[in-house]
Write a structure and sequence with these properties.
Number of helices: 8
Strand content: 25-35%
Number of domains: 2
CATH class of the largest domain: Alpha Beta
CATH architecture of the largest domain: 2-Layer Sandwich
C-alpha cells in the first residue's frame, strides 16, 4: 500500500505553524521484523519538516541606472590617435549604438581611450570591453592601416552613479528610521556591513564595480524578521564566496532588502541578482517554509529588481571632466 499523506494542522500558540504528517499504514500480514536492527523504526508515524519547491527565476523586470567609466590603452602605448580623435570618437559611438550601449561621454587620447557608458543589467563589463575593442581594432586597421593589435589586453573599469557610494552606504544604514521601525521595542530590521571587504580579482583588469541592489518580497508581504534576515544574510555571504562576488552591506526590512554588492567584470548585475534571489528563496523554502505559507505566497520575491551603480565619483562630475577640452 502506498503511503497516505495527511495534512494535519496543529495550533501552536507561539507561532501558529503547521506541519505535514506522513502516515504509513501497517499491512495486516506483515512479516516479522528484527527489532534489534537499528535501521528499522517501530513507530510508523513520522513527522517530516515541511519543504517547498519554489520555481527559480530566469529573468527579471528591471528599474536601473548603470554607469561605468572605462579606460583602455593602445598596444605598447603607441601614439596612434594623435590626429584622429574625431574619427575615433565617431567610430566608438557607432559601435556602442550598434550593440545597445549608450555612450555618455568619450575622451580620446593619442595612446588611450576614456569613455563613460550606460549599460543594461544583462551586459557584463568584460563582454562590453571585448566588443568595443575587437570592433574598433578591426575598423581602425581597415580605415587607418594600423597593424594589429590596436589595443592592449587590459582595461580599467569603475562604477559611477547619480550619487556617490558614501551616500548609498548612509541610506542603507538609515532604513530602520526611514521606514519608521526605530520606535519599536524589537524592530524587524537586520543590518550587515563588512569590516574586511573581500578582494576581487580578474586577469588583465583593474576594476571597482559597486551596485546598489533592491529586492522586494512577493506582493510586498512582511516576510522578514531580524532573525530571519540574519539567517538569509549569512547564507548569501556563503553564496557570494562560492560564486565570486562580494556583499559589502545588507539592510533587511520586512518587505524588501537593500544590498551593496561588488561584482567582477565577467558577471552582469542581472546574473548576480538571480543568484541572490534563487539561492535565497531556496534557503527560505527549505528551512522556513511556514513563513511563506503564513503569508499566502508561493514565491519569496517579486520578479523585478532595482539596480544602480555608485562609486567615489558621480556621473555628472565624471561626464563634465571627460567633455572638458583637453
Amino acid at each position: 500500500m502506498c503511503p497516505l499523506q495527511v495534512l494535519v494542522q496543529f495550533e501552536i500558540p507561539t507561532n501558529g505553524s503547521w506541519w505535514i504528517v506522513q502516515i504509513q499504514p501497517i499491512r495486516r500480514r506483515a512479516p516479522k521484523l528484527d527489532c534489534s536492527d537499528p535501521t528499522l523504526h517501530r513507530n510508523r508515524l513520522q513527522l517530516y519538516p515541511p519543504s517547498m519547491y519554489l520555481t527559480p527565476f530566469t529573468s527579471l523586470a528591471w528599474a536601473y541606472q548603470l554607469h561605468y567609466y572605462l579606460c583602455f590603452r593602445t598596444h605598447r602605448r603607441r601614439s596612434l590617435f594623435a590626429s584622429k580623435a574625431v574619427e575615433l570618437t565617431e567610430l566608438i559611438s557607432e559601435i556602442c549604438a550598434r550593440h545597445d550601449y549608450h555612450l555618455l561621454a568619450c575622451q580620446p587620447h593619442p595612446d588611450q581611450l576614456r569613455c563613460l557608458v550606460s549599460l543594461q543589467p544583462a551586459q557584463p563589463i568584460s563582454k562590453v570591453m571585448q566588443t568595443i575593442k575587437a570592433n574598433s581594432s578591426r575598423e581602425c586597421s581597415q580605415q587607418f592601416s594600423f597593424s594589429k593589435p590596436v589595443w592592449a589586453r587590459g582595461f580599467l573599469a569603475k562604477s559611477v552613479g547619480r550619487v556617490r557610494i558614501g551616500a548609498v552606504r548612509e541610506y542603507l544604514e538609515q532604513q530602520s528610521k526611514h521606514h519608521g521601525y526605530d520606535s519599536r521595542l524589537l524592530p524587524p530590521i537586520y543590518r550587515y556591513r563588512t569590516s574586511h571587504p573581500v578582494v576581487l580579482e580578474a586577469a588583465h583588469a583593474r576594476f571597482e564595480l559597486n551596485h546598489h541592489l533592491v529586492l522586494a518580497t512577493c506582493q510586498r508581504k512582511g516576510v522578514f524578521t531580524s532573525d530571519l534576515g540574519k539567517a538569509l544574510s549569512d547564507y548569501w555571504l556563503s553564496v557570494a564566496g562560492i560564486r565570486g562576488f562580494a556583499i559589502d552591506q545588507i539592510s533587511v526590512v520586512p518587505d524588501h532588502v537593500h544590498l551593496l554588492v561588488r561584482i567582477v567584470p565577467r558577471m552582469s548585475i542581472e546574473e548576480c541578482a538571480l543568484l541572490l534571489m534563487n539561492n535565497g528563496q531556496h534557503f527560505i523554502g527549505k528551512n522556513y517554509p511556514e513563513v511563506l505559507i503564513e503569508n499566502g505566497i508561493n514565491q519569496l520575491w517579486e520578479a523585478s529588481a532595482y539596480a544602480g551603480t555608485c562609486g567615489e565619483l558621480s556621473t555628472a562630475l565624471l561626464k563634465a571632466w571627460l567633455n572638458a577640452p583637453l
